[in-house]
Fold these 3 entries.
Entry 1:
Amino acid sequence: DALRGAVIVDRRVMSVRDRDLDAELGAGYGIFAGRSTRKAKLRFSAERARWVADEVWHPKQKGEFDGEGRYVLEFPYSDDRELMMDILKHGPEVEVLSPLELRARVAEAHARAARRNRDDNS
């Protein structure tokens, strides 16, 4: 959705097998490519779980409800930029269980947002 135009070039293109393309681009979450992945583990509140349980975040995701009606979702990712946006949109209704680096980045983003939106920052 960020493309602004295309140009036809007069040279051969490289043919890439679907299997190879999927291995490179399909390994992680979202639009960011990379074969090297980490596993995100998120826990959504019982209220939010009703909707998130029906979403597909990644073809290789695993999800289950816990004993308190919350939804725990695990999936691979290689770059956290898009993932951060999707986690943050759920606000306090999601907790990052792992990895700890992602948890810390989400916590810091929420803290920055809280500082920016305080009444005394006019």
Entry 2:
Amino acid sequence: MSLETNNRIDRIFKAYDVRGRVPDDLDEEIAWRIGFGFANYLQARKVVIGYDVRPTSESLTGAFAAGMVAAGSEVSDIGLCGTEEVYFATFNRNMDGGVMVTASHNPHGWNGMKLVREEAKPLSGDEGLAEIKALAKQAQPPADISQPQLPQLSSRSRFVQHLLTYIDVSQLKPLKIVVNAGNGGAGLVIDALAEFLPFEFLRINHEPDGSFPNGIPNPLLPENRSVTANAVREHGADMGVAWDGDFDRCFLFDENANFVEGYYMIGLLSEQLLARHKGARIVYDPRCTWNTIEVAKNAGGVPVLSKTGHAFMKARLRKENAIYGGEMSAHHYFREFHYCDSGMIPWLLVAELLSTSGKPLSSFLAGYQQRFPVSGEINRRVQDPDRLLHDIEVRYSPEALNVDYTDGLSVEFEDWRFNLRKSNTEPVVRLNVEARQNLALLQQKTAELVSALDAAG
């Protein structure tokens, strides 16, 4: 193996998955190597594979599958799908592993793989990915990688029926819902669900198109929200839903076309699920915490802190047997979904809540937003992230009520708090600030911290 191949493999293995530019970092040979390493590491007899809408996904899927077949695995193809459909097929069909070929919300020209083992348990840098990387480097791919003929596995109808178990369809009202798939794969599942639901779906950017003619689907970016918000406003919809490319995250808009921060969604879903499961545990991440803690305790639940990131969250949910876990980045995890994250279950639960209550979405959020205003996540590239975190700690910790290092640096005062952490997936630091019923204080402290970040850039 050449030094360049070695370097390319090193570049694309991240904290939770594999991602890189195609073909500079990731091509069919590298995909074959990783597939061979993945199957060998798991000693996988049966594996399921699926892929997103990007133009390179299908060929990379074939090469990855060829590597697995060479390692002795039987590989079933579920075709164009979302990441959670791979999770579902893995645990529902008792597979030894699952592979989703996707770059999620990354820019044009990127692709990658999300890898799980049996029961859709995640593989990460802490467990499995380093070993797979080493095996990929040692693999000996053929000079000509031929795409294997894979058996097709029909899984979507089972997946849709599973989704419907989270709600009481008989209680649903004919809500008007804007759905923005961002030309990713979510529209395929919406169409499959539609025949079972009384909703009027107003579809925008609905057709899968890996060229992303309307921009990369990442509603977490403020500049990407206006198209959904405008459609909610124009049609007088009850709510709007937008997804990222592989739709393992969904983002909601209320009836007034206001974007709903993921933080408040955690509170809303916690309250709803705890009404059904008294005393259950709720897992949350350290970025913003006060609302989740208050909601969980008031609803008779037990809030449990976890490090940010899907591998950490899923491990914590399993350990605690928690009913639900949420990250403010819009990853929502459910015990009945084998502790995996889903971009479909959250909006279905909210639609059921609107139907049974007869109240608008904004009415459920207003209390959260007033009691605990937040900055939203602020990202900055800095020269020396470790030095920045040290300097911020030295500056703020002497007067703090509590300093926590579960994930980055969390500093808490009586009426405001912040979390500053290095990203696990990008070369940036991420800042989140929240306050207690004091918007002016929130704005003041946010500006203060952003100034320090910018000075370190």
Entry 3:
Amino acid sequence: MDRAKFYATFRNNLGSLTQPNVVGFELFLSEGERRQEPINRLAYVLATVWWETGKTMQPVREAYWVGNGNEAVAENWRRTHLRYYPFYGRSYPQFTWEANYRKASDTWNTKYRGDGPVVDFVKSPDLIMNPTYGVPLTFDAMEHGWFTGRDLADYIDTADESDAEDLREFKEARRIVNGVDRANDIGMIGLTMERSLKAAGYAC
């Protein structure tokens, strides 16, 4: 894949990129290639991550905006307002609830760990902020319906179709993460991601 063409097409459609943006995209593009993720599903993963991270492509914590950047204030807000604390949202699309941290632990340890140490996201939930874990587990969560019980295959096929049909699928796919909240906005970003991947010669 020609990464320069990916970024050029992205910039022509969605504007400039920061260095942290590029770092995040590189991780997700590499993981998409490794998994041979179908192009339209990868496009939607990228669109979701772009949106859910506040267009940073970096891991975030739920309610990171509380306290104007004061993390102690934000953490106190989470503790007093979120009934699933301490398993509040973290990472790219945000992992919430103990059950998802347990799924993340089981998946990492059986699928990715190799000879590395056992990882326990329930005991240490902040570990999911590490891109080493967060990037591949984002794909697993969206492929297997961890967030809402709906997954990529429920809404996005692998056929090369019109933008109108892809947008319809992308809008429906918002249900994988968060109902229909901003579904059209994220769907339109998905179309840009798909165009960018095609311009780059992404082959899957």
